[in-house]
Amino acid sequence: MNADSNAASVFKGIALFTPGGGLIYCIDRKKQERWHVHLCAALRDILNLPEPPHFLVPCYAATVDRWLIPQTQQLQMVAEASPLVLRYQTLLNAVFDTGDLVWQPSRLPEGLCDSVVLSAYRKQFPQLWEPHDLVVRYEAAEPYAHLHQELPVAPLEHSPLLSARGYVLRLFVSGHSIATERTLQALHRVLEQSLSHPYTLKVIDVSQHPEQAELDQVSATPTLVKVYPQPVRRIVGDLDNVDQLLRIFGPDR
């Protein structure tokens, strides 16, 4: 790997989970600060919360930092996750394309993430404990505070964070098996490498939510449905066929 490709691989990845297992994350190649604050504000808008859920930081947070050693131009990487979200390592590696990286537990002050204290927020933020199965990549060309002043709160599938140039996807699976994890990992890799616009992916277990499968006319799994922008398109079964998969996005992906 040459110096140019090394430099292109430098980034900071920041992830924030909800107690219900939802994920919002960003990939920041400019190494900006205060991204956790931005992600909390984005969750507020996506889930229509009364205020940003800052209590999620650092107890439901994960970060990966990849940088170059100036003298040798060698890549170094450190990945840490709160003990409460270490079980999501497969998903974190999928969204950040970090292979089989083993994430280390974050060193947090004793008692900071006490379950009793965290559960006290459940009454104020009940949406965060619901199993939304959200996987949202957040990007902003401007500071988030500026965007929020101008953009109204909207439901997820019409969120201003996505904009008219974003995509809303639903992946229908049957149960949370090793095969499902592999499908999700492969799908994230293709989406991250091939799409030039932001996207939101919602994973739906048909065994838990048959009514959603019926509404989207899904009769087999896995099925990927692009629900926004119109027209609705879908691919059933073979999500490993990259060319076929990308056809649902049209020529302007």
Automatic annotation (TrEMBL):
Transmembrane intervals: none
Signal sequence region: none
A Pfam match: KaiB
SMART domains (alphabetical): KaiB
Gene3D superfamilies hit by this protein: Glutaredoxin
Stretches assigned to the KaiB domain: 170-251
InterPro entries named in the record: KaiB-like, KaiB_domain, Thioredoxin-like_sf
Name of the protein in its database record: Circadian clock KaiB family protein
